[in-house]
Amino acid sequence: MSEGVVHITVLPSGPLRVQGHILLTDADGREWDLRGKPAISLCRCGMSEKRPFCDGAHGRNGWRCDAAPPGNLT
Fold first, then answer.
1. Domain assignment of residue 47, yes or no
2. pLDDT tens per residue, range 31-53
């Protein structure tokens, strides 16, 4: 993985997988301590009890969402 590049992967019917140098803050500017974590998974379904992180609730609740947008983005 390139240094300084953050990779975000939209997993089908799952979370956003974020890899790279990650700085995650809330609306008030408070920062999560992510030292030692090369990757995190962020909730997309809104059902996680550990938001903004994924806890697998999407799978337990049958949440579905396509990973790819319709058409071409470029």
1. yes
2. 999 999 999 999 999 999 999 99
- CATH at 33: 3.40.5
Per DSSP, the residues of 10-46 read E-TTS-EEEESS---B-TT--B---TT-SEEEE-SSS
Q: Is there a domain that residue 13 lies in?
A: yes
Q: What pTM, to 2 d.p., does this model score? A: 0.83
1-5, 6-10, 49-53, 66-70: the lowest-pLDDT one: 1-5
In-domain check, residue 14? yes
> How long a stretch of residues is the chain?
74
Widest CA span in the chain: 37
CB 21 within 8 A of CB 35: no
